[in-house]
């Protein structure tokens, strides 16, 4: 599903973010990536969403070799990968339904189809009752669930959650993790980055530890060790 | 494709309304620019038309001696017709001259009486119309040739349009100066418009940077992101064009009767009355072109996707 083959990323200021990184993630896996700040986690995600381009090495995601896709097809690639961020990145002047629908609107999906898909995904994340509320009227956990709904509505094969619990209290954080586990059970590959030791240890899933742009540990039932 | 365009249009309209004050300022500047451009066009056309109608009236009259035979007059006409810059030559006999005089002054008994006092006779003449009334030297050269001079009445020298040439020269000079000034003013205002819209869009890009980031994140194509900014600027153009036209149309119609005494604006009024769709289309296209160009410049400069 995700293949990184000797990937190196050096930024224009000469800082080395990733150094010959090898990574292979199978379909339907739930993988947690841990590492201290500046270890290379964010660069790894930016390479997957093609916000950044690797300096050398090969990246294949969902069968697509990133070296072969022209620049104009990058938006289409992004529509196949769901991404959730720590700061939610919701449109403040649109309500919950409109925020989720927006992900389909940019892809040219018909209004009738949008009206059918959005309520389903809101039900999945438990936000049907809040469908007409604006982001400012929601709690942190609810906002993150809107972001997850927006990522899921296009039915991506991969969901990347970049520190999704970073701004949440423990109760809301666990609700989000439970939701990610549920999504994974439905068959979506989930890639989670987090600093939350408690969550990583309780998950008992594959944990990849990155340090200075290299994978230093990769365990099937790993624990937080940074 | 249609759905995507419709959504881009909706987003552009939403942005336009959301930044009501900025949009109003940009539209106002664009409106002033379009009014200037329209008046530059109108005055250009009106002046050209006025000059043409004035110069059409200019001719050269050569008065002949009563002894000149029709054959002599005819050969004089032929020599004139062979001269460059001559548009037409016509012979007015003595009887025709008297008839013309009487009909032209039918309402002025004193002038009619004056004709009777002069013996009721007027000299026959040759009327020459020039192609370019500002250059009569070649015609004067032929008129003054000795062979032609002997046919002319020495007491009535040739009339070069009643000495209006100097006035006409002044009008031509003024109108060419005015045309240049209005063109320069239009260009200056187009540049000001472009700069103001450029800055408006630049500010819009800055205030919507988070929204743009989210659009990229959810897989919006570059044109889906840029499109609303172009629509927004295009809307400035459309609204400014309609307002500018209403202003110009109102002013033109209310001032037509007064202006008509000085310059000939009939052709412009006709254009506005008979081809309103063409006029509106031209104005709207000009507005959209200015808006979209400046927006595109701002996007290329500040929106890195």
Protein described:
- With 226 residues, chain A is an alpha/beta fold.
- Chain A folds into two domains: 1-80 and 157-226, P-loop containing nucleotide triphosphate hydrolases (Rossmann fold, 3-Layer(aba) Sandwich); 90-155, no CATH class.
- Chain A contains seven helices and ten strands.
- A six-stranded mixed sheet of chain A has the order 6-7-8-3-9-10, sandwiched between helices.
- Chain A is globular, with a radius of gyration of 17 Å.
- The model of chain A has no long low-confidence stretch (mean pLDDT 92).
- With 305 residues, chain B is α+β, with helices and mostly antiparallel strands.
- Chain B has two domains: 2-53 and 168-302, no CATH class; 59-162, Alpha-Beta Plaits (2-Layer Sandwich).
- Chain B has a four-stranded antiparallel sheet with strand order 2-3-1-4.
- In chain B, α2 crosses α12.
- The longest helix of chain B is centred in the middle third of the chain and has 43 residues, at 165-207.
- In chain B, 31% of the residues are buried.
- The model of chain B has no long low-confidence stretch (mean pLDDT 84).
- Chain A binds chain B through residues 49, 72, 75-79, 83, 89-91, 93, 102-103, 105-108, 110-111, 150, 154, and chain B through 1, 3-4, 7, 18, 210-211, 213-222, 224.
Question: Structural class of chain B, please?
Answer: alpha+beta
User: What structural category do the secondary elements of chain A indicate?
Assistant: alpha/beta
Strand content bin of chain A: 25-35%
β-strand number of chain B: 4
The overall pLDDT of chain A, averaged over residues, is 92
- β-strand percent of chain B reads 5-15%
* End-to-end distance of chain B: 21 Å
Give the domain tally of chain B.
2
The CATH homology group name of the largest domain in chain A: P-loop containing nucleotide triphosphate hydrolases
List keywords for this structure.
A: 226 residues, Rossmann fold, 2 domains, 7 helices, 33% helix, B: 305 residues, alpha+beta, 12 helices, 4 strands, 73% helix
């Amino acid at each position: 599903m995700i293949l990184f083959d000797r990937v190196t990323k050096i930024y224009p200021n000469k800082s080395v973010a990733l150094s010959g990184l090898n990574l292979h993630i199978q379909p339907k896996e739930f993988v947690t990536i841990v590492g201290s700040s500046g270890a290379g986690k964010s660069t790894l995600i930016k390479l997957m969403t093609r916000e950044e381009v690797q300096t050398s090495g090969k990246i294949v995601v969902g069968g697509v070799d990133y070296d072969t896709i022209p620049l104009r097809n990058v938006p289409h690639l992004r529509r196949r990968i769901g991404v959730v961020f720590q700061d939610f990145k919701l449109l403040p002047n649109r309500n919950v339904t409109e925020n989720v629908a927006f992900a389909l609107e940019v892809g040219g999906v018909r209004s009738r189809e949008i009206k059918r898909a959005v309520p389903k995904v809101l039900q999945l994340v438990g936000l049907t009752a809040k469908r007409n509320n604006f982001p400012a009227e929601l709690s942190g956990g609810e906002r993150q669930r809107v972001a997850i709904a927006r990522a899921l509505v296009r039915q991506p094969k991969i969901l990347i959650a970049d520190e999704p619990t970073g701004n949440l209290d423990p109760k809301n954080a666990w609700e989000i993790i439970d939701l990610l586990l549920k999504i994974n059970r439905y068959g979506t590959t989930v890639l989670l980055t987090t600093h939350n030791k408690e969550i990583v240890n309780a998950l008992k899933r594959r944990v990849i530890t990155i340090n200075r742009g290299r994978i230093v540990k990769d365990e099937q039932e790993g624990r937080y060790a940074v | 494709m249609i759905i995507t365009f419709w959504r881009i249009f909706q987003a552009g309209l939403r942005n336009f309304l959301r930044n009501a004050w900025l949009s109003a300022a940009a539209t106002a500047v664009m409106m002033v620019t379009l009014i200037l451009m329209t008046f530059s066009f109108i005055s250009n056309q009106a002046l050209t038309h006025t000059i043409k109608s004035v110069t059409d009236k200019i001719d050269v009259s050569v008065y002949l001696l009563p002894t000149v035979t029709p054959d002599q007059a005819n050969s004089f006409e032929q020599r004139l017709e062979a001269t460059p810059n001559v548009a037409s030559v016509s012979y007015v006999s003595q009887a025709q001259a008297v008839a013309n005089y009487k009909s032209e002054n039918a309402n002025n008994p004193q002038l009619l009486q004056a004709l009777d006092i002069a013996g009721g006779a007027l000299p026959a003449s040759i009327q020459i119309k020039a192609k370019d009334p500002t250059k009569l030297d070649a015609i004067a050269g032929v008129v003054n040739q000795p062979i032609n001079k002997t046919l002319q009445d020495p007491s009535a020298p040739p009339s070069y349009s009643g000495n209006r040439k100097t006035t006409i020269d002044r009008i031509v000079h003024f109108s060419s100066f005015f045309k240049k000034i209005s063109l320069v003013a239009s260009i200056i205002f187009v540049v000001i418009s472009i700069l103001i819209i450029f800055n408006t869009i630049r500010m819009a890009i800055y205030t919507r940077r988070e929204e743009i980031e989210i659009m990229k994140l959810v897989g919006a194509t570059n044109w889906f992101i840029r499109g609303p900014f172009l629509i927004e600027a295009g809307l400035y153009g459309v609204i400014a064009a309609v307002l500018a036209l209403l202003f110009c149309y109102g002013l033109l119609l209310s001032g037509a009767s007064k202006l008509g005494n000085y310059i000939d604006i009939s052709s412009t009024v006709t254009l506005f009355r008979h081809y309103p769709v063409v006029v509106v289309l031209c104005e709207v296209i000009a507005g959209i072109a200015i808006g979209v160009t400046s927006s595109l410049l701002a996007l290329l400069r500040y929106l890195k996707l």
